[in-house]
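HUMAN: Ready with one sample?

ASSISTANT:
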Amino acid sequence: MPSELDLHYPPDSCPFCNIASAFPSPSFQSRSRASTSSSSSRVESLIDCVPSDAASNHEKTTPSSFIILASQDVIAFLDILPMTRGHVLVATRNHRVKVEDMRGEEGREMGFWLPVLARVVSRVSGSTDYNIVQNNGARAAQVVPHVHFHIIPRPETMPQIKNKSWTMFGRGQRDDLDDEEGASLAAEMRRVLREELQKMESAPKL
């Protein structure tokens, strides 16, 4: 049962739900390929979840959203108040307030995409170190009550860290993401994500 602190953002005005609506998942026909035995068909189905540049117009939502992934149960996009360059949010497509509210298939899909997106963030940001942070509830610093994971690159040098409130929980000094920079960065992440997925076709089976 959600507490009063969890109800400060009605689902019908949830910004993450707006992003999910603006960037739908692939068609059923495309997704159905994932259930076939062909490795190439599965990879093609996964790549279908990466929106094309033409379909990724950041002006589809207000404020702008810079989409990277739009799968059946998971969406990923740039944080518009990034802590570092390449700060990505990975959220459930459906409105789930806390991790405990996620369904089994959502958890499985999230578990698949998180390591893949972590590799993408690491490659594009050039940072081999990163945090994956997930908050549940207002007292745990969850600002938007919709399940999401932060992938936050940790570059080698961060000037005057000790003098700033720069924490792993999403608070501190954060600047708005410029639209032009956001569009360019998201496009690069989509390109690298497609490359990472393509590698799976030739990867050895476990």
